[in-house]
Amino acid sequence: MHPAARLDTLGTEQAYVVLAAARRLEAAGHKVVHLEIGEPDMPTPPHVVEAGVRALRDGLTRYALAAGVPELREAIARSLAARGVRAGPDNVVVTPGAKPMLFCAALALIEPGADVLTPDPGFPIYESVIRFVGGRPVYYPLDETRDFAPDVAALARRITPRTRVLILNLPHNPTGGVASTRDLEALAELALRHDLWVISDEVYGQIRYDGRRDSIAALPGMAERTVIVDGFSKGYSMTGWRLGFGVMPASLTGAMTTLLINNVSCTATFVQYAGVAALTGSQEPVVRMVAGLKLKRDQLARGLNAIDGVRCATPAGAFYCFPDIGGVLERTALSCEAFAERLLAEQHVAVLAGTAFGPGGAGHLRMCYATEPAELERALGALRRFVGKLAPVPAA
Predict the structure, then answer these.
(1) pTM of the predicted protein model
(2) In 3D, which of 85, 83, 105, 86 has the Cα closest to residue 95?
(3) Per-residue confidence band for 395, with pLDDT thresholds at 50, 70 and 90
(4) Which residue among 91, 157, 170, 281 has the highest number of C-beta atoms inside a 10 angstrom radius?
(5) What is the SS3 assignment for 239?
(6) What CATH code is assigned to 46-280?
């Protein structure tokens, strides 16, 4: 007996593979510094937890409307004004996490054989869902000289008559890069000129260190061709609650809702009321978390840049550093995959090889700094020791 061949097209997230290896080390009695999983270290805000518990006690445990409870769809629509997007509840569909919306968007917008522009490096599930629905991923690079902003000129050169969809992720995983206003305007112009749909992954939108919120959907003509994918996991530290949403032209919400009915039926009702509290309650926990993340970002980037053979841009958003370790790899003849594996095995520091995010991540590591400053110091000390002990390859 064999499963359907379509399953062979699905990829995975290397973060979970590394996490499993780290857990095995911990089970053997070792203390591991976890910089592999992209998860805030702030607890879910108390008023959000209380709203979820209250909803449970009030008996809000039955099926919800497939597209989401009206109160949450309305709250999401109002919250979009912060990024300049005008929308109503009819533009919003609620999902159990952002990934189901990413899958729904791919199923709704990508025809078999269509080319889909996707960032490299980039979140590996983009390529996975593109291939699963029969599309062809076309990688576009990021500009490392501009702290990993989208390389608009290189992206434009990859557009062909078969290109139907552009995937954006801003702020970006794994680099923390963002786009300037000029970048967004140029990308919007390309989408309009070539009649492209845009899937805009904005799950890290609240975690920007310049205080800005923006979206390509706010630009003229773009709301009609953009599906925003977003969620509560990162900004409100609700990773385990599984609450996400999509914002799209109203003409798409019916089809998207039908996809959800066929797949997950609806999102847990009590979780949705916790989401209402997150959006309408105090935003001070988010502000405090971002301020703390900025200090940790500076701590990690500064420490990485002090290591011989390592260069690290200062990320403008999200909570990842994406250091270039090419100088170390060149003198030791290691790959970034081997470097990351040995760092875990020998120093008990869990990071991800840059190639977990595509070929464009070669020579890099992804390190999540959403942890205690003391843990970051432990990681930096271990990294310095590890690099110092690596034997250089003899010159030919």
Answers:
(1) 0.95
(2) 105
(3) low
(4) 170
(5) helix
(6) 3.40.640.10
